[in-house]
Amino acid sequence: xxxxxxxxxRAKQNGQPSPVVEAQAASLRGHVDLSLFVVRxxxxxxxWQGIGTLRRHLREHETDLVHAHYAWVGMVASMAxxxxxxxxxxxxDIEDYRIGRMLIRLFSRFCWKxxxxxxxxxxxxxxxKNAHVVPNGVDMEMFKxxxxxxxxxxxxxKKDKKYALFxxxxxxxxxxxxxxxxxxxIAGRSxxxxxxxxxxxxHEKIPLFLSAADVLL
Length: 217
Prior knowledge:
The mean pLDDT is 88. The strands form two sheets. A six-stranded parallel beta sheet has the order 2-1-3-4-5-6, with helices on both faces. Strands 8-7-9 form a three-stranded parallel beta sheet, sandwiched between helices. By secondary structure, the chain is of the alpha/beta class.
């Protein structure tokens, strides 16, 4: 019997799930019956609305297990269903403010079937002894070194320039884009350095940027 699993995550600005979540889903398909559900909306309102929309979805679709990505989505899932809920803490949610970490511990104790973290540091940080350390996998066919000159040509970047890569949305405060800008200004006093901030870049282009850059922040 094949298990029916529902992946639940917060939608990105383009309305789609994170490429990391999509990649994990792709790696499991064929072993389980897996579908995706995204929580859409702005800020906290999205989570409150997500409880109702997820509840309706679960009534209409057979599901054995809900796998939620990020802590707040895990809380939404727990309030939407009595099905077993597994939660992957992705990193930034663990670095959240103290009340957030307290809620994670409460939900993990009373609501969540299991908790997955991405590193031992995250497990130590959140203080959940029973959390499972399962790092995100890497598609080695996609993420492999490309000659820098070839990568820059494909991205229309200059051959003789130094580039620092900021692989995150600058609008996310926890990523600290301002610090990256300041660091590049200081470094640029002796060696001109341009900061490349990536937002809404197709997943398949990321290896090109990684190979094209001189520094990764």
